[in-house]
UniProtKB/TrEMBL annotation:
Peptidase S54 rhomboid domain mapped to chain residues: 13-153
Keywords, in A-Z order: Membrane, Transmembrane, Transmembrane helix
Keyword Acyltransferase: no
Transmembrane portions of the chain: 18-42, 54-72, 109-131
Its membrane topology: Multi-pass membrane protein
Keyword Transmembrane applies: yes
Coiled coil: none
Protein name: RHBD2 protein
Amino acid sequence: ARGAAMAAPSHDGEVHRLITYIFVYEDLISLTCGAVIIWYFAGSFEKNVGTVKHCILTAAFSVLSALLYLFLEPLVSRLLEVGDAKGFMPVAFATLGVSTTRSRMKRTLFFGCRVPVVLVPWFGLCIAWFVPHSSLLGNLCGLLVGEAYGLGYCFCLDFPESVGSKLDRVFPFTLLKRIPGLKYIPGSLAERRASENS
């Protein structure tokens, strides 16, 4: 049913589905696209903010994107066919929105053309339309949430580096540090720079 991926939580009280939809993939192609998006966008975002903040913001972006989707879906579905929001792509667009709004660069290369950095996510949104089982509305909601956070409208989600450093030393983040093959990024900028230089 249309909108089932996120619409159901509001009716059934299954609040957990406001986060778990990012782990839902229709087939191998969409799973592969999701894996590439997670590796490219989430990886670079994590390097800039640390693992703790990345995990917290991933959950926050997931919930906020889902709530915005639930709000807009009844309105947009009157005009267009709205696909279910599934997979990591809405959160990836949120992280891309944060990165571009806070970037010090004015222009960047996009498929060989120099374009303003702030337009990159919007070009990406058009490209993502062709990804199998991708939801344009879901991706748009993620991008709007990310840009709002990047511009400082979601300042309640920010916390000082000292808090991130403290959380580095508590469960479950202490467990993440011990997983072989997983690169843990410290919450402190000084520690991140030291780990990059070592």
